[in-house]
Specification:
Blueprint (H helix, E strand, L loop, with lengths): L1 H5 L6 H6 L3 H15 L4 E2 L7 H5 L7 E5 L24 H14 L10 H4 L3 E5 L4 E2 L11 H15 L4 E5 L1 H4 L11 E5 L16 H11 L9
Parallel strand pairs: 2-3, 2-5, 5-6
Antiparallel strand pairs: 1-4
Subcellular location: Cytoplasm
GO cellular component, one term: cytoplasm
GO molecular function: uracil DNA N-glycosylase activity
Length: about 220
Amino acid sequence: MVDKFMNIQNWHPSIKTLLKTQSIINLKLFLIRQRKAKKVILPNSNNWFKAFELTAFDKVKVVILGQDPYHGLGQAHGLSFSVVHGVKKPPSLNNIFKELHNDLNIEPKQNSNLTRWAIQGVLLLNSVLTVEVNKAASHSNQGWEVFTDSVIRTLSKEQQHLVFMLWGAHAKRKSILIDRNKHLILTSTHPSPLSAHRGFLGCRHFSKANNYLKIHNQQVINWQ
């Protein structure tokens, strides 16, 4: 398990220091205890840092922040809101695709794997990177938030003209970590069926993101 954390240390120099903090040491111990107790942890440990593997620090253009991974078997694979091809589309992702159609007239696809976004510079980041099967938010407040908050702060401080999409109350609270003078922060309700109709559907975040990138002479995202 420690090796999985070591694999992320080259994403940015600050990660090496972060991994030595007591919060992250405690997080590792928590995950070890979970394993010893025969708990099923999602996603597979090979995918805990998939978002970072696919989107290098200096390639990030957009950050889409989720809360924690899908907790159903076979769903989570390390990218927020994404599921692997062949898995039934979760309701939140279905609403994301509805908004894409409303915003950019992009027809929803059967493939719900968002890897194609990640390799273009969309960091699909969850605040918490693991979860126990069938127990939503079960790994909250164990140290992951310290890790991902640091990532957001570092992106805000060292990058220019990023787009942060913060959907839902939990994600919106992360706006205090971001310099509004340097970056675009887009907020709305969560794409969950419980709240999507109260602001997410119709938010046009995808076209707004591309317009911002274009203004700042960056390649836009192909959201197809």
